[in-house]
Design goal:
alpha/beta; 10 helices; globular
């Protein structure tokens, strides 16, 4: 077993975060599992996790959690920046309020955690930051535009941070899954239902919604992605990027091969086939 590490995970109430926490606890690591819904982490607490409430949009709460971890453990070895959600809807119809909240959670939430942990990692000249990216940091599709934009932002930021801290003993890793059944999809589709789009978009919204639901029915569960995160945590020299599903490997390659216009036409054709 790898040496025990002190690990902070955001968004650990379900999905990747919850499963990763379980796997790390089973390996003997010290896990601080955080989320807004602490009631969903009672099983993690029973297994030895330090369960803390954390809203990643609240800067003071982020700092309080990191301060508590440092006070209790003296160091932080790994940050798993996992908290995030999908705001689906056509670009025109998503409101400014919805868009700001999407970025506040997915992008600025990561920034808050990184700012809180990096001073400790720099002082120790050691640490890992693992950011949850996505296939949609490379490709986008109808109704995914604003969610994809947050993942594009995460990719750009993660690449820069990796270079900035390279000589400080800190590794920065991006995890890039494609479609995975974690419960994320239902939250995203619920968000889509709250977006009032003009009727001109009915065909593309209905088609893409049907296509996405069909895709998730055959999508893998979170196991492979969770294993990749654990591998990155325990590796002495982790890879910069872990692509964890078949589509995360294939779709960016297809886009590069056929070009933007044909890739867009392919997406629309697939969506219309479901009508």
């Amino acid at each position: 077993m790898a040496d025990s590490q002190i690990i902070l995970i955001t968004g650990a109430s379900d999905g990747f975060g919850h499963l990763v926490a379980e796997k790390l606890l089973a390996k003997g690591h010290t896990v601080y599992a955080t989320a807004r819904r602490t009631d969903r982490m009672c099983d993690l607490q029973d297994k030895g996790a330090h369960v803390l409430h954390l809203d990643v949009t609240n800067t003071e709460e982020v700092q309080k959690v990191v301060d508590q971890l440092i006070a209790e453990q003296g160091r932080i070895d790994v940050l798993v920046n996992n908290a995030g959600f999908g705001q689906y809807g056509v670009v025109e119809a998503v409101s400014e309020e919805q868009l700001k909240y999407q970025f506040d959670v997915n992008v600025f939430g990561m920034h808050r955690l990184q700012q809180a942990v990096l001073p400790h990692m720099r002082k120790a000249r050691s640490g890992k930051i693992i950011n949850l990216g996505s296939i949609v940091s490379h490709v986008s599709a109808p109704i995914l535009g604003w969610y994809a934009s947050t993942k594009h932002a995460i990719k750009g930021m993660t690449e820069a941070l990796r270079m900035e801290v390279r000589d400080l003993g800190i590794d920065v890793v991006e995890i890039e899954p494609g479609a995975v059944r974690t419960g994320f999809e239902e939250v995203a589709f619920d968000a889509l239902d709250k977006v009032q789009a003009p009727s001109d978009y009915d065909t593309v919204v209905k088609g893409m919604t049907n296509a996405s639901r069909n895709m998730y029915k055959s999508a893998p569960g979170p196991e492979r992605t969770a294993n990749a995160i654990v591998t990155a945590i325990e590796a002495s020299r982790p890879r910069a990027v872990y692509k964890t599903t078949t589509d995360s490997h294939i779709l960016p390659l297809i886009k590069r091969l056929i070009g933007d216009h044909r890739y867009g036409a392919m997406n629309l054709w697939m969506a219309r086939r479901t009508l």
